[in-house]
Amino acid sequence: MNQRASIAVVGSGYVGLVAAACFAEMGHRVICVDNDETKVRMLREGGIPIHEDYLPELLSRNGQNLVEFTTDLRGATHSSDAIFIAVGTPQSEAGSADLSYVDAVASEIARSINSYKVIVEKSTVPVYTNEWIRRVMERNGVPRNLFDVTSNPEFLREGTAVADFLHPDRIVIGAATERAADLLKNIYRPLTSGEYYRGATAVPGPRSQADPPPILLTSTKAAEVIKHASNAFLATKISFINAVANICESVGADVEEVARGMGMDTRIGPKFLRAGIGYGGSCFPKDVAAFRHVAELAGVEFSLLHEVEKINAEQRSRFFQKVRSALWTFRDKKVAVLGLAFKGGTDDIRESPALDIVSMLLHEGCKVSAYDPAAEQRTKELIPPGAQMQYVDDPYAAALDADALLILNDWAEFADLDLERLHSALRFPIIIDGRNLYDPATMNQKGFSYLSVGRPVSSQLADLATTSRLPRQPERHHGIALRDQPFGSA
Ligand code: UDX
Ligand code: UDX
Questions:
Q1: Of 271, 288, 378, 481, most Cβ neighbours within 10 A?
Q2: CATH homologous superfamily for the domain 315-468
Q3: Catalytic site residues?
């Protein structure tokens, strides 16, 4: 029998708001706390500050009865059995995680606590944060029997966050006492018992009543390390395949075939082997850096992580070099850009490789015509529209009269473009695809000069692509190839 819990979630961002909506979907009462008054007002009025599939449905379905929004952490602490901390843990200048928001929230909980509470780390935090939160509580005079601090890391991906939350591979609970572990087990019981998946309105996903998610009970420290190590490992997988892609480019193999072949080995698995312009987002870059910092503090030489970061940074430069090879010069060229967010399916532009490339283009004097289904507004806060940066409403408008089109993230609609329409919109039919969304042979057939990552290039650009593999001798190759082979037929 599932028992309804009273839960406070502190931080209504990409992680906190999704967690809150999903806890309500599982039947719990949830108070969302955020210190940003504008955000809280918007949420109270039914607005949703982020783009995330299923989030609007879940909040409108359960919002009225089960979810409350407030800035009052004290009141929320009083009314809750468990308090999930999901505030930001950004990267500090030294590369470590900046835990000042977590500290501030823990201190306020300590000043407010009036009965036994389980404090749960949901944000990604370095090992020992649990200990620090405990110390903050004790320093504020809170008796040991009034609280437990646990770690329950979240593995959701933006864009598919709700489905990831409700259909997890595993639920990790790091707890030092049975009392705290039991409370968390009870919170997740609708999922672990399979009951949630029986409901007619359950969000669809891989889990089912017959195959519910398992719980892994660990120490708090192990749970903290699991989260950092998982993100660092996934980032490593991406950098690994990107390095392999670069080898493929040199030797004339197709990285997509290679990744398929590697992924069929169940020890390796097919996921997170998509070559491209490198990883971005609010998690991988900062978590790899933070984990590297944790290793340093632990006296462990983990230079692998440094290499992962280096390969990731180089991947963007290599891509930009390809664009340079195709365009020769940049000043006043018009470049169409599909994708601004750090990946498809989200409006999040934090650490977006796409935006990095856009900045490089603008810096070189290009005119950029950009389309992203959700990230335009956030991008405008960073790069205001102006003579050089234009936002349009669809891929074909972006392509109109452009000297080349770049695909920089992987929204599903970018993989399903009307190629004939695109061809006639572009000034020159050149596509440089940073996400390998199309088959090079098909693109060639359709009359495009098509460059992608780690794959054979279409004949027209073959010489130029070679240039991007040979960054030490670019000028000579650029000049000859461009003069000998003017682009396109327009
Ligand atoms: C956050 C962490 O950055 C990340 O490390 C972790 O893995 C998941 O949680 P995210 O949800 O993407 O990620 O952060 P963000 O969208 O910035 O949301 C954080 C929210 O916390 C914001 O709404 C902010 O207003 C709020 N906040 C911040 C507080 O309510 N109190 C604070 O003291 C600080
Ligand atoms: C990640 C983790 O996947 C998630 O478990 C954790 O909770 C938060 O961090 P997220 O950052 O939302 O999630 O997105 P993810 O889908 O993991 O992609 C991260 C970056 O890697 C994106 O820039 C994406 O484009 C890139 N990526 C991903 C690749 O380049 N290749 C791949 O094969 C997979």
A1: 288
A2: NAD(P)-binding Rossmann-like Domain (3.40.50.720)
A3: 283
